[in-house]
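User: Structure tokens for both sequences below?

Assistant:
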Amino acid sequence: MSTWPHISTVILSATALACFTLPVTAADAGFDTLAKRLQAEKPKFAQRQQAMLAERYDLSDRPSTTTAMSRGKPVQDGVRVKLPRSMTWEKLAALSPQEIRDKQLWPAGFLPLPHPHHEVGGMVFPEFLITEIKQQTGRDLTRFDLDFDLPDHFLPEFPSAIYLTTRPDLGDVSQGKLVTLDNFNEGFKDILNPKQLEGLRLLLTPFPQQQFNASDDRRSLKASQGVACFDCHANGHTIAATHTVGDIRPNDHRHRIDTPSLRGVNIQRLFGSQRAMKTVEDFTEFEQRGAYFDGIPADAARKGINVLERGSQVHFMAEFQALLDFPPAPKLNLFGKLDPAKASAGELRGQKLFFGKGQCASCHTPPYYTDNSMHNLQVERFFKQVTINGRTASADGPIKTFPLRGIKDSPPYLHDGRLLTLADTVEFFNLVFELKLNEQEKKDLLAFLRAL
């Protein structure tokens, strides 16, 4: 079946404002009325999103029998993006970008991924995090108007491992637990100094956010304390929680965010997928002042902005974040390349492709596999602008080069999570870079990425 948007999908997207009543504010109708209306509309938008995902992707659970994340969760095997009718990856790669665009053959799964309800956006958390946070702390991160959309088997393992640059001898210090305000002191008081421990406490402390607060236009049934940094970045990593960026307008052009891992923050020099902020302190402060409230200062003031003190609180939070290390990669040498005595033949061939024909190292340089720069992939040359489920697919613009160390632990991929597996990522860049890799080369490159 073709995965290019069906006429019905495009019509539904184009007429969404007419078909569905968008949320009203509490000023228009009190909180109870607002909640009832959005709860009644929730199934319609959930069905719309799931239909789009099923049309774009093979969502079946096909775990790898050979590759797992740091704490044992298998990665998902195979390319999951569906191709247009009667098309193969080899045929598609043989076409020019202009031909793919003119014939509308760009796979829909390679288009920007809409937020679970793009017209309203906001933070959305996977159910496993909601359950654990509620059990440990009593806080409820459930939204009454929408749920997270991607199946759990495509998400990072939970809870994730924690590695510290200061104590590599300890390995994973998570003890298999989600770190929260209830247990952080017991788990870290003997391995952090007091300043770092206070930074961790602040990263675990909930503060008001656009959808989770005490106002009458919140999206939680009960007044909420808010959201903590380590709700999205659980255990300093990621759970693929999603949001929409606060710095793009109009709304249909706003990017869905796939929460990036905080592992390796100490070697990064740019922060934010597009904003290119220069320090983690800048980013930490920006999140509280801007991103938490969709870049709307009036909402921030009304809902309870938490203004962090730069010289102590922001600095303490940044210092702890800078301790978060990448997972061990036993096949890599101290230069970040494969040790021939430990790597397989396929992984070594993949490394050669990575630094050669694949052109991957043009942006992803060892030992951490990032150049700390921004690059514009110009993917829009492959498709005509189209609006699907409230998201207009157009030019993405420059995107930060994310580190590839430990990449198998961080699905889904790309800045908005549109690529569910590393195999999808290889096919995507084979087309975008016009590499014309053969099937064996793709397998070898995938093997190398999984070894990083």
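Moving on to the next sequence.
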Amino acid sequence: MNRRISRKTWLWCFLLVLVTTLILASVYAQGSSKKASSYSPVVITEDFSSIMSRMKAEKPAVMKRHMDLLTERYDLSNRPAKGVTMSRGKPIQEGVRVKLPRGMSWERLAAMSPDDIRDKDLFPSGFYPLPHPNHPEGGMLFPKFHIEEIKKQEGRDLTRFDLDFDLPDHVLPEFPAPIYLTTRPDLGDVSKGKLVTIDNYYELFNGILNPKQIEGLRLLLTPFPQQQFNQTEDRRSERPSRGVTCFDCHANGHTNAATHLVGDIRPQEFRHRLDTPSLRGVNIQRLFGSQRAMKSVEDFTEFEQRAAYFDGDPVIATKKGVNILERGSQVHFMAEFMALLDFPPAPKLDVYGKLDPKKATPSEMRGQEIFFGKGKCGVCHPAPYYTDNLMHNLKVERFYKPKMINGRYASADGPIKTFPLRGIKDSPPYLHDGRLLTLEDTVEFFNLILELKLTEQEKKDLVAFMRAL
């Protein structure tokens, strides 16, 4: 009898301890639940080898989830346009790549009201904001061709152990891109087909630039610590890294489509993926930064080094190695070089930035008429540089109900900058987050969003005109 009581007592004690433990664990979890914060964690309690092992193990599932999303959204096949290339000869991809909902056509969709499209959930998935390959993590991410060239020239490794770049090479800008200078248009492409780096900039530009500009270029090519590439245990490179350069994203003063998340939005799920814009024609632009809060390229250059490299967090910048530039010389020298970067030649344009009827095709001329007329493109993109240097809110959220997409909360984008369209064929993908892979996708997007009701021929003519800019 005593033995039976002993067992019952033991059982009840065990259950009591178990319940108490679960209650305490629940209370602790509630009390220690992650509170919203504007700041990144400074003190990392997990050692680096553990972080890297964990994230390497998670990488296949993370990349599969993201690539499944891209495949669901887009036709990613390699379909170059006949006889149309970028400035150095890379074929331009043609055709609408955004997939439509089953049973829908672009004509039927464009005939519907925004309310109908939203209520029937018919907004094409490729028109939603594009997430970072791992949106909760974010960070700078470089195409493989750039990683390989930098490793070959400098021995510096921009590989992330947790993520790979997502978009295929054939939908990205040509690499390396040509460099045209406003001061020496007679020279054509001064890069001579090379990726300009800290190893070769002097031999390429000595005798072409003045001493200030050469020093500015050197600084644009000098690696400095950045959020994912630095010496600390919360980096995302296997070895401690010297960092990244301005021209790791703006390769040859253009773009290689490197991506990361804008630094000036919180919380994380609202941060925009950023498609790196070209620096060509930066001298005619007046708004800078993802929210266009900076009014000069000097402001932007200084801000990038002080905080943008570190997701807009100067606390983390101090930890990882912030590089404070001297405004009166270093910032000025960097800005002076960037102001020399010219748009690629457009032989069919006249001095007003419009088509010369003697050089343009009938389709291009019709496209120009649509651009400045029915298409309303010229309202925000006036000649000669095809930007109004303003911001506009497209209110795309009229067409869909907010939802979470792989860690990115798709809601209102707010105002976005009017980017110059000169040389636009050299700068895929399109829109501020790179969600549109081709110019045809871009035309379909604006045809729907602005409710233009363009015909198929008008769309083709509009694409032909933009290729000539």
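User: Anything stand out in the second?

Assistant: Residues 62-467 form a domain with the Cytochrome Bc1 Complex; Chain D, domain 2 fold (CATH 1.10.760.10).
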